[in-house]
Specification:
357 residues, alpha/beta, Rossmann fold, six-stranded parallel β-sheet, 42% helix
Length: 357
C-alpha cells in the first residue's frame, strides 16, 4: 500500500482540489484509493458523527467510502481547542494511527490531506512532518506561487521533508504571473533539486461560492431573490463611497457580492446597475422600498445581517479564501485542469505509485 501526503506551506493553496484530481487519476488507472484527512477545521455532522466538511465530501464521492468516524479523527472545534489547552484527553496520534489503519485496509493507495500549512496540527502531533514520520510515504507539495517573491516557503518545506518530497504543484496562479512562474521559478527550484509538476492557473469558478453559502456564513435573512440562492458569486466588493464613484467601482467585477450599509440606498442602486449576484446589507437596517422593488424586479437576492460592514467583510474574506468543491462543476473543472496541465504519469512515478499490470 502506497501513502501519498498532499501538503502545503500555507492556507488556501487548493490542497483539497488537488486531492480530488489526484484520486480521480489513480482510480482511472485501476487502483483502489482511500482518502484520509487526519486534522480537519470545518466541522459538520454526518450520520451523528462530527467530521470535516471536505473530508465527508471526498469520502462520500469514493466508490468504496471508509467509515465516517475514521476519515477525519481530529476535528478542530472550539471545545477541542479548549480541551487540548487544558490538558484534557483529546484525539491525537493514537486515534490518527488507528483511523488510518481502518481507511488504508485493502487499499492500493491512500491520499492523505495534511493540515493547512506545515505548522498546523503540531499541538496534536499531526503536522505535515509529524504525519510523514507517523505514516510514511511520499509528499506532494501544493504551493500558491507568487512572482513577487522568491519560493522561500517551498525551499524551507524541502529542507524539512528531505527525500520524501516528490515535488511541487504551483496552484491558483493568475495569468499575469504565469510566465514568471514557468520560466523563472520552476527552473530555479529545479536547480535546487525540486521538481515542479505543473503550474495550474487561477480559475474564478473554483474560488466562487453560492449566495446560499454567503447567507449561511453571515447568518443573514433573505429579503428577496429566493430563486437565485444557488447562483455563483466570484468575489465581493465593499460599497462605502458616493453613488457616482460606486457605479464606476462596481463595473470592474461581474457576478459579485456587494457589502454595504442598509441605509446606503445610493450605493445599493449603483450595485444593482452592474453585474451583482447578491446585496449584503449590514447593520440590520432594511432597505428602502425603491431599492427592494428594483432588486425584486432584477431577481437579485438581498440579505440583511446583524453585523457591521467590517465584521461581514472578515467573514467573507475567509469564505472566499477557501476553495470549496461542493458547487456545481467545480470538481469536474479541477480534474480537467489537473489532467491537462500536470504530467500525471511522471508525477505518479515520483510518488512511487505502482500501477496494476
Amino acid at each position: 500500500m502506497q501513502t501519498i501526503i498532499v501538503a502545503s506551506t500555507r492556507r488556501y493553496s487548493g490542497k483539497t482540489g488537488v486531492c480530488v484530481a489526484l484520486i480521480d487519476e489513480l482510480i482511472r488507472r485501476g487502483l483502489d484509493v482511500g482518502y484520509f484527512k487526519p486534522y480537519g477545521g470545518m466541522p459538520t455532522e454526518v450520520d451523528g458523527v462530527v467530521t470535516d466538511r471536505d473530508a465527508a465530501f471526498i469520502n462520500g464521492w469514493l466508490k468504496r467510502p471508509a467509515p465516517v468516524a475514521s476519515v477525519c479523527p481530529i476535528v478542530r472545534t472550539r471545545s477541542y481547542v479548549e480541551d487540548l489547552l487544558a490538558g484534557d484527553p483529546v484525539p491525537g496520534v493514537a486515534e490518527v494511527t488507528a483511523a488510518f489503519d481502518v481507511v488504508s485496509k485493502d487499499r492500493d493507495v491512500v491520499v492523505v490531506e495534511a493540515p493547512s500549512d506545515l505548522e498546523q496540527g503540531a499541538g496534536s502531533g499531526v503536522s505535515a512532518t509529524q504525519l510523514l514520520a507517523l505514516l510514511g510515504g511520499r509528499v506532494l507539495l501544493v504551493e500558491t506561487a507568487s512572482a513577487a517573491e522568491p519560493p522561500d516557503r517551498v525551499l524551507h518545506a524541502a529542507s524539512l521533508l528531505g527525500s520524501a518530497l516528490a515535488g511541487v504543484i504551483h496552484n491558483r496562479v493568475v495569468d499575469a504571473e504565469r510566465p514568471m512562474i514557468t520560466t523563472r521559478v520552476v527552473p530555479f527550484l529545479a536547480s535546487r533539486g525540486i521538481t515542479s509538476f505543473g503550474v495550474l492557473q487561477h480559475d474564478p469558478l473554483l474560488s466562487s461560492v453560492t449566495v446560499r453559502e454567503i447567507i449561511d456564513e453571515l447568518g443573514g435573512t433573505v429579503l428577496c431573490g429566493e430563486d437565485h440562492l444557488d447562483d455563483l458569486v466570484e468575489s465581493f466588493m465593499v460599497g462605502a463611497m458616493g453613488q457616482e464613484k460606486a457605479l464606476r467601482f462596481f463595473r470592474r467585477k461581474a457576478r459579485k457580492a456587494v457589502v454595504t450599509g442598509g441605509d446606503r440606498a445610493d450605493v445599493q442602486m449603483a450595485a444593482l446597475e452592474t453585474s451583482t449576484s447578491v446585496l449584503v446589507l449590514t447593520g440590520n437596517q432594511s432597505p428602502s422600498p425603491a431599492v427592494m422593488g428594483r432588486a425584486c424586479d432584477l431577481g437579485v437576492p438581498m440579505v440583511l445581517v446583524d453585523s457591521d460592514t467590517l465584521g461581514a467583510v472578515e467573514h467573507l474574506d475567509l469564505l472566499f479564501g477557501h476553495v470549496r468543491l461542493h458547487g456545481p462543476g467545480k470538481a469536474d473543472r479541477m480534474r480537467q485542469m489537473f489532467s491537462e496541465q500536470v504530467p500525471v504519469d511522471a508525477l505518479l512515478g515520483a510518488l512511487g505509485v505502482t500501477q496494476p499490470a
